[in-house]
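Annotated sample (chain length 101).
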Amino acid sequence: MMREMDEKRTAGRLRSHSLSVDARERAVVTGAEELLSFHDTEVCIVTSLGVLAIEGEELHIERLNLDEGQVIVRGLIYGANYDDSTQPQSTGGLFQRLLRR
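Output written by the structure step:
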């Protein structure tokens, strides 16, 4: 059973995912599965390679198409961090950790 779960997780990670940042003003994310939260200083996205947090100022979602797995974020981007130790299904703990940042 555990091996089956690991194989599914590995297969999920093989899906295409990319993050590109253009002039610290535009971030294009592919392989997006879910938008966890967004506000003007942080956007959190579940990707095929873990939870991605994009941090900055005056951030806004320019495009959100989860059918295609694409999210475009505009604003002044300070950085991006992945947290693959968190399971997206346990939203209570994740949201609490994200709000503490």
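Annotation: The first helix runs from residue 2 to 13.
Annotation: Strands lie at 18-22, 26-30, 32-39, 42-47, 50-65, 70-83.
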